[in-house]
Amino acid sequence: MSVLVYTESENGKFKKSAFEVASYATEVAKQLGTTATAVSFNTSENEVLGDYGISKVLHIADDSLKTFNAKGYAQALAQAVKQEGATTVIVSSSADTKFMAPLLAASLNAGYVPNVVAAPEATSPFTVKRTAFSNKGFAHTQIHTDHKVIGVSNNAFGIVENKTTLTIEDFSVATDDTTFTTKSVDIDKVIGKATIADADIVVSAGRGLKGPENWGMVEELADVLGAATACSKPVSDLGWRPHGEHVGQTGKPVASNLYIAIGISGAIQHLAGVSSSKTKVVINTDPEAPFFKAADYGIVGDAFDVVPELIEKLKEF
Ligand code: FAD
């Protein structure tokens, strides 16, 4: 009875969240007195999972599962759960897994808790701490079903090194065309840029920047810091930036180590999606902007003066 963990990858490379969920699964396995087994899809990097306490990898090399497919991946994981006799499944809280995990949980009759931010508080009954009320509070949630699916928030538990001897097994799954109600056949992606979900640092800007022609300095700051770029909802609604960059309650959640908000007022719906970030820096001309109340560091100033100066200073390092 091992703990099973789904390790996300893209184009054959593990995402950063894979190492965090692997670390989390290792902790859960320790608490339950068992070992952690990872399931990976179409990657040649499996050995690295041994650095995070994983003792076995079930590797699925299947062309029909080359791109993420919620139904197909849920079925594959359910088959792995059955083979391993696992009762606890650990996943990330990414948008993809939030789509897939409920399907997996339903097929296992499992209780599913996403947005978990700490190691289990107890294993009997199984109790986890998760964010609640749009990140304004925490809930301590018990799961009473035999099977459990736990979704771990990005950057909440952290990556913990724990070198372990690892075995890798090929795992074949039974999928056919009826498995897929929808299927992504191709994904267009900006290569070489950090994604909001995986980035350690996110540089985000709002309507205070006046227009899309002023995003050059936001991108330059992001480049200097190796950060992802993001924006507030009105900015993407106005077509200044792509919708994929919109963060907040109705956009992508951000749980980065550093979130820099430029010309963003800090409306409750924006804060709901970014409050899990560890350190928040706000640049705003209005000292009364609500974002300052949620900020760790604040600069009252004009973005058009502050950001270029910040870029120059950072380039000196
Ligand atoms: P504004 O509110 O216009 O703020 C601009 C800020 O820039 C101001 O604080 C101003 O002082 C500052 N500024 C102006 N000039 C400068 C300058 N030169 N230098 C520095 N600062 C400057 N919003 C989201 O972001 N994400 C969501 O997910 C989201 N979901 C929503 C869901 C619902 C149901 C609703 C009703 C709203 C939602 N909103 C969301 C919208 C939200 O309420 C705010 O309207 C929005 O976040 C404001 O965006 P903003 O801060 O970019 O713009």
Automatic annotation (TrEMBL):
<dbReference type="InterPro" id="IPR029035">
    <property type="entry name" value="DHS-like_NAD/FAD-binding_dom"/>
</dbReference>
<dbReference type="InterPro" id="IPR014730">
    <property type="entry name" value="ETF_a/b_N"/>
</dbReference>
<dbReference type="Pfam" id="PF01012">
    <property type="entry name" value="ETF"/>
</dbReference>
<dbReference type="InterPro" id="IPR001308">
    <property type="entry name" value="ETF_a/FixB"/>
</dbReference>
<dbReference type="Pfam" id="PF00766">
    <property type="entry name" value="ETF_alpha"/>
</dbReference>
<dbReference type="InterPro" id="IPR014729">
    <property type="entry name" value="Rossmann-like_a/b/a_fold"/>
</dbReference>
<dbReference type="InterPro" id="IPR014731">
    <property type="entry name" value="ETF_asu_C"/>
</dbReference>
<feature type="domain" description="Electron transfer flavoprotein alpha/beta-subunit N-terminal">
    <location>
        <begin position="3"/>
        <end position="189"/>
    </location>
</feature>
<keyword id="KW-0813">Transport</keyword>
<keyword id="KW-0249">Electron transport</keyword>
<protein>
    <submittedName>
        <fullName>Electron transfer flavoprotein subunit alpha/FixB family protein</fullName>
    </submittedName>
</protein>
<comment type="similarity">
    <text>Belongs to the ETF alpha-subunit/FixB family.</text>
</comment>
